[in-house]
């Protein structure tokens, strides 16, 4: 703690200088090619608009193709040069290969890969009655990042491009009712932090971690269904605070263009990381107080796998909350 107290002012000063230098030499996105997965709603949609304002060429990828057409028109009005729409499931390697190859065939290059497809939840682990849905959480949140990255990496090397990842503070912040989601996001962060050392300076990686971006998380169980072969028995909407989503999207794109390794929103969440490292009992006591009256309802049918060949119901962007 003494060493940290001594080093902290110096490190802060160096970070400010680094931020200023990167801001002066930030990447210009005009006419560059950006692939965005999970682009049909919430953070993926807002990221598309942010890149459009920078006059980039966009490839919008999601399972809900019908939603992408409206987003495509909005992006073009905001300044995007060319916008392609591709329906694909990011948990399937062959479909990821298809939309990346189609992008290269059309534009000839790729500069940014933006992975935002995410499935979150807001229920106690014991409340899930069908464990067959558990792999879906890892498929969407982890493999839905790995497969597009695996296919796109050779093309990103050619352009010294960048990967922008939608992670979450839940990857290290042990928030109750988020066990499966937190585990998947932890895997995502570990994967990209390790990959950063493997690709070195050939490909940049920006990891965005954020806290709650919903103004009322308690009203529903469902956070995001983009790419999910899941259905919820209780379909109740969780409204988003639109300004927070837009602010997060602006920070993510600005951070990626500066070449930042991390984008954090809100930044004050870092204080909880210090508590977890140095005084974990404080967090433990806090959670016990906050959730003292809450008890899991064992056997409650919160989540179930979708029947075969039955289409997943489409949700508006107001259905997502913690991280799309």
UniProtKB/TrEMBL annotation:
Keywords: NADP, Oxidoreductase
Location, primary (coarse class): membrane
Source organism superkingdom: Eukaryota
Keyword Oxidoreductase appears in the UniProt entry: yes
Gene Ontology MF, one: oxidoreductase activity
Any Gene Ontology CC annotation: membrane
UniProt protein name: 11-beta-hydroxysteroid dehydrogenase-like 5
Bilayer topology annotation: Single-pass type II membrane protein
């Amino acid at each position: 703690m003494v060493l940290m107290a001594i080093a902290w002012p110096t490190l802060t000063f160096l970070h400010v200088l680094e931020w200023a230098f990167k801001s002066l030499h930030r990447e210009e996105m005009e006419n560059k090619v950006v692939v965005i997965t999970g682009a049909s709603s919430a953070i993926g949609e807002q990221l598309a608009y942010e890149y459009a304002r920078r006059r980039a060429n966009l490839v919008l990828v999601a399972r809900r193709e019908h939603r992408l057409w409206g987003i495509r028109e909005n992006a073009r009005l905001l300044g995007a040069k060319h916008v392609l729409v591709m329906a694909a499931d990011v948990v399937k390697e062959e479909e990821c290969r298809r939309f990346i190859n189609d992008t290269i065939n059309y534009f000839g290059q790729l500069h940014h890969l933006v992975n935002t497809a995410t499935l979150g939840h807001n229920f106690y682990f014991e409340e899930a009655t069908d464990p067959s849905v558990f792999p879906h959480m890892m498929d969407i949140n982890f493999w839905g990042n790995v497969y597009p990255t695996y296919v796109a990496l050779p093309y990103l090397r050619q352009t010294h491009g960048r990967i922008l990842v939608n992670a979450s503070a839940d990857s290290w912040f042990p928030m109750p009712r988020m066990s499966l989601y937190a585990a998947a996001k932890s895997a995502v962060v570990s994967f990209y932090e390790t990959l950063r050392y493997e690709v070195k300076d050939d490909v940049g990686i920006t990891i965005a971690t954020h806290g709650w971006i919903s103004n009322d998380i308690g009203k529903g169980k469902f956070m995001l269904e983009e790419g999910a072969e899941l259905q919820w028995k209780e379909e109740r909407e969780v409204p988003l605070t639109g300004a927070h989503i837009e602010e997060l999207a602006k920070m993510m794109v600005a951070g990626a263009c500066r070449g930042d390794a991390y984008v954090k929103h809100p930044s004050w969440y870092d204080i909880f990381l210090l508590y977890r490292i140095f005084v974990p009992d404080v967090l433990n006591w806090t959670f016990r107080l906050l959730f003292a009256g809450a008890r899991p309802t064992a056997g409650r049918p919160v989540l179930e796998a979708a029947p075969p060949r039955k289409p997943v119901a489409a949700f508006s962007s107001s259905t997502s909350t913690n991280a799309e």
